[in-house]
Amino acid sequence: MSETLIKVNDWGTRLDITVFELVNNNSIIVNISTVTDIKIWLRQHNTAKKSVTGTLYTDGTDGKITYTLVAGDITVAGLCDLQVELTFGLAGHWTSNWTSFEVESN
Question: The pTM is what?
Fold first, then answer.
C-alpha cells in the first residue's frame, strides 16, 4: 500500500497497492497483467464492507493496482481494512488477506 496519509472524508486520494505472494517466507510480486476484474474491499470500524473497482497502475507485470477515493469511501477515523479480489477470466479467482491502514481524523 502507498504511504499516503489518509484522513476522514478524503477524496481524490489514490490508494496504490502492490500484490505479493508469500513463497518460502519471501514476498514475491505477482504478475497480474492478465487480470480481467479488480475489486477492492474497504471495511472501516463498525461499518459494512464496501466494494470499489480498482485498475492496473501500469501493465500489471509489477503487481500494482490503484484506486482513487471518492466522497463517502472513508468516513471513520482509525483502522481501515482492505482486501483485494482479482479475477483472471476463466483462469481463476484470487483473494488477498485483509490488511489495514490508518485513517486520521480531521
Answer: 0.88
- Assigned C-alpha cell, 44: 472501516
- Cβ burial, residue 15 (10 Å; 0-12/13-18/19+): buried
- 6-7 vs 99-104, strand pairing mode: parallel
Mean pLDDT of all residues belonging to the chain: 93
Query: Residue 76 carries which DSSP code?
Result: S
d(CA 66, CA 13): 10
What's the rounded Cα separation, in Å, for the pair 77 and 7?
7
Domains of the chain, with CATH numbers?
Answer: 6-101 (2.60.40)
